[in-house]
Amino acid sequence: MSEIKTAVADHPIQTLIGRRWSPYGYDPRPLQREDLRSLFEAARWAPSAFNEQPWRYIVAECGNTAAFERLLSCLVEGNQVWAKNASVLALGVTKTTFARNGKPNRHAAHDLGLATAGLIVEATARGLLVHQMGGILPEKARELYGIPEDFEPLTGIAIGYRTTADPPPPDTTPRTRHPQADFVFTDAWAAPL
Amino acid sequence: MSEIKTAVADHPIQTLIGRRWSPYGYDPRPLQREDLRSLFEAARWAPSAFNEQPWRYIVAECGNTAAFERLLSCLVEGNQVWAKNASVLALGVTKTTFARNGKPNRHAAHDLGLATAGLIVEATARGLLVHQMGGILPEKARELYGIPEDFEPLTGIAIGYRTTADPPPPDTTPRTRHPQADFVFTDAWAAPL
C-alpha cells in the first residue's frame, strides 16, 4: 500500500486527525455496508444550529455500477478521472432553510462541514480515506435526483481505500498549511495569539 | 463531575465522536496554552476547497478578564449567561473570497465547519467540551476587532471543563437526532440507502 502522508504538526494532535488526508489514488474495491452505516452515524451525531441537522447525503456504492456511474456524472470531469476508483461516492447537500419556520439557515453549509468531518474521523479510524470536492455539477445533481429547491448540493465526497499501485503525482507533493499565527488571533484582527 | 451524555448511536462509532456534546454547564477554570495550541493545530490540518484554509479564529482566555469580557460581549445575551463559565471563548470567522483571485468562496462556511470539527475532536480527547453558537453579534465583533469586509464572523465557540455543580436544566434532556433514513439517500431524493 502506498504511504499515508501524515500531517507534520507543530503541536501534538490526535492520530485520527493527523492521518486524515485527501489523496487521489484509490484501490477500487467495495466498502462493507456496516462500515458505511457507521460513517453516517458519526455524521449524524454532529452538532448543528438549533439541532436542525441541515445535512443530507446522496450515496452510491461501487458495487452498484449504474448508481455509481450516475453519481460520478455529477462531478466535474477532472474529478471523475480519480474519483471513479473510490469505493463509495456521495453528494453533501444542505437544507438552506429551517424546518420549523422556513427562514434562511446561515449555518447550513457550516453544519454540513461539521457532519462530514465526523464521517471523516470515523473513516480514518477504519483505514479509509476521504477526499471531498467542490467541483460538482449541482444543477445536474438536482435534476438527476430530484433535489427540492430549498436544498443545495454543495460537496462531492469520495470514500475509499488507498491504492496499492504507484500513487498519482499529486499524492507525492508535501502537505502544507498556514502557521497558526496566520489564523488564530486575539485582541485584534491579525494579532496572533 | 456531572455526567457526560454520550450519544446513543444506532451503529458503532468512535468514542471521540460519541462523547462529543455541547452542554451548558462549565467549571470556570483556565485551559493550558499547550492544550489550546493543540486544539487549533487540529483545526489547522482540516481539508478545504483549493486548500484555501478560509478559517480564522479570534480567541480569548478566561485568565485575561478584559479580553474575555470583550469576546463575551459579542455573544447574544442568552449565550452570555452560560458561556461566561467557559475556559476559552472564540469567534469562528470565514474568509468569503479566495486569496488568489478574489472570487467568492461558496465553501468557506463549510470549510470552517470542517476545521472547528477537528478542534472539537482534539478537545474531546483532552477532556474538554465545546459548545458552538450561532447567536453572536457579527457587526459588533467586526467593529471591536476590526474584521475586514471580506471576512464574516459566523460562529461563537465556548471551550471548557464540565461543571462540578448541578448542571443547568437543558443539560439533562435527552440528545436526539433524526434517523439515517431521513438524511442518507440513494437513487433518488428521500429514498433511504
Q: What's the helical proportion of residues of chain A?
A: 25-40%
The proportion of strand residues of chain A reads: 15-25%
Mean pLDDT of chain A: 96
As residue ranges, the low-confidence spans of chain A are none
CATH homologous superfamily designation of chain A: NADH Oxidase
CATH fold node name of chain A: NADH Oxidase
Largest interface: A-B, 72 and 71 residues
Please state the second-level CATH architecture of chain A.
Answer: 3-Layer(aba) Sandwich
Task: Describe the model.
2 copies of one chain form a homodimer. Chain A is α+β, with helices and mostly antiparallel strands and 193 residues long. Chain A has one domain: NADH Oxidase (3-Layer(aba) Sandwich), CATH 3.40.109.10. Chain A is built from 6 helices and 7 strands, in the order αβαβααβαβαβββ. Chain A has helices at residues 15-18, 33-44, 65-72, 77-83, 108-125, 138-145, and strands at residues 26-27, 55-61, 88-95, 129-133, 151-162, 184-186, 188-192. In chain A, a hairpin with a 1-residue loop joins strand 6 and strand 7. Chain A starts with 14 loop residues before the first helix and ends with a strand. The mean pLDDT of chain A is 96. The interface between A and B is large, with 72 and 71 residues. Strand 6 of chain A pairs parallel with strand 2 (55-61) of chain B, so a sheet runs across the interface.
